């Protein structure tokens, strides 16, 4: 007779954020069934966390898998944001589904082994690339579902209103399973019309929105207020996010306070993308360059839902990246002079508040929640974040999805 187990997984001796003493975590049918010291029962799989910190799987709210790992094709792309867009635009016509899939898989696997279990991938659609990148993303979503929940956001990187074919491609992708819709008004000949059309498409297809917005340091103009107005008018509060919003780093205190109030009232979330925003902003200054990253911790203090995310990896927009969200949060903390008293807030930006921005249900280590768990090579939250601790293993819906044995000195 086959043995009947109480649980599918028993993760013993886990240290939880804010908790006292070591806890066991029991999982049944992909959900956390019990949490407590010295749980009784048997499990199909039993693992020992060894007193290490256990977190819910990390959440990357903004990444471009379709154009990752392109450095070998365009190492000399210059000119900041415009140069990066032009460089990738020149390559897109030659993208194939298999090419995008392979590069995306390389980046996705890095992210998975760094502890990411939820991800929003922004995918460019235009006549140059057609639906090839989108098709590759949908394949990645299916093939890596054992380890990560991949949400596909289609958007027009190079404008929309100049060519009806772009909107047709977006609508077709939404009809074929895209999870949400994005926009990029600052590259459009008619930014306001793009925002109008993007909101109309979102309402028609009942999907959330995530815009690339205000990506420079010129405080004299902004699209953020219009996004807030359109969000309220559409009744889309809590369903709209913006990425970059680096103008928030260039405005004065009074203007920032006003924008925080508008964002909070409209329920618009904001994602900072430290690596890309640092690399591309402030290039007109040889020294004393501004940091050029939205101060999202201040927005969070004002009631805005915020996150910190990856954006680009190994391409002209960002020729860096290893998929570590803890490293990205750590970079943000360095930039903003945030000490250990705010490490927990920064960790939230790649976990709990990032999950709220993506409207992920039942997120977190609690009975009844999704059993998405990672074990870090640290036994303290401050050390884990400050030291960019390596994830040693992960469990997606209670099933082991990756292992990374701890480094060992050989004396």
From TrEMBL:
Question: Amidohydrolase domain spans which residues?
Answer: 106-379
Give one Pfam hit by family name.
Amidohydro_3
Can you say what this protein is called? Amidohydrolase family protein
């Amino acid at each position: 007779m086959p043995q009947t187990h109480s649980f599918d997984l028993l993760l013993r001796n886990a240290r939880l954020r804010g908790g006292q003493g070591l806890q066991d975590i029991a999982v049944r049918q992909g959900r956390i069934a019990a949490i407590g010291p010295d749980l009784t029962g048997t499990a199909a799989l039993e693992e020992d966390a060894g007193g290490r910190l256990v977190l819910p799987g990390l959440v990357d709210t903004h990444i471009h898998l379709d154009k990752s790992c392109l450095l070998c094709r365009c190492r000399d792309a210059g000119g900041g944001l415009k140069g990066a867009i032009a460089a990738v635009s020149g390559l897109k016509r030659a993208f194939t589904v298999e090419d995008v899939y392979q590069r995306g898989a390389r980046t996705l696997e890095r992210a998975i082994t760094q502890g990411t279990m939820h991800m929003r991938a922004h995918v460019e659609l235009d006549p140059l690339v057609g639906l090839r990148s989108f098709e590759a993303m949908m394949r990645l979503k299916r093939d890596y579902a054992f380890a990560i929940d991949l949400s596909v956001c289609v958007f027009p990187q190079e404008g929309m209103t100049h060519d009806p074919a772009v909107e047709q491609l977006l609508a077709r992708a939404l009809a074929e399973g895209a999870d949400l819709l994005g926009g990029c008004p600052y590259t459009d000949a008619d930014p306001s019309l793009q925002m109008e059309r993007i909101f109309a498409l979102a309402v028609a297809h009942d999907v959330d929105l995530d815009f690339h917005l205000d990506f420079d340091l010129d405080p004299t103009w902004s699209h953020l207020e219009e996004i807030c107005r359109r969000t309220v008018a559409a009744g889309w509060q809590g369903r709209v996010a913006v990425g970059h919003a680096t103008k928030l780093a260039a405005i004065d205190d009074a203007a920032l306070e006003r924008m925080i109030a508008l964002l909070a009232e409209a329920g618009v979330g904001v994602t900072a993308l430290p690596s890309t925003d640092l690399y591309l902003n402030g290039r007109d200054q040889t020294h004393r360059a501004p940091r050029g990253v939205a101060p999202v911790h201040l927005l969070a203090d004002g009631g805005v839902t915020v996150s910190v995310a990856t954006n680009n990896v190994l391409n002209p927009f960002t020729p860096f990246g290893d998929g570590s969200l803890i490293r990205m949060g750590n970079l943000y903390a360095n930039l903003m002079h945030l000490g250990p008293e705010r490490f927990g807030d920064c960790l939230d930006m790649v976990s709990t508040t990032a999950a709220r921005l993506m409207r992920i249900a039942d997120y977190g280590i609690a009975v009844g929640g999704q059993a998405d768990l990672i074990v870090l090579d640290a036994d303290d939250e401050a050390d884990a974040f400050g030291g960019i601790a390596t994830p040693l293993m992960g469990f997606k819906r209670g099933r082991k999805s990756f292992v990374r044995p701890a480094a060992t000195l050989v004396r």
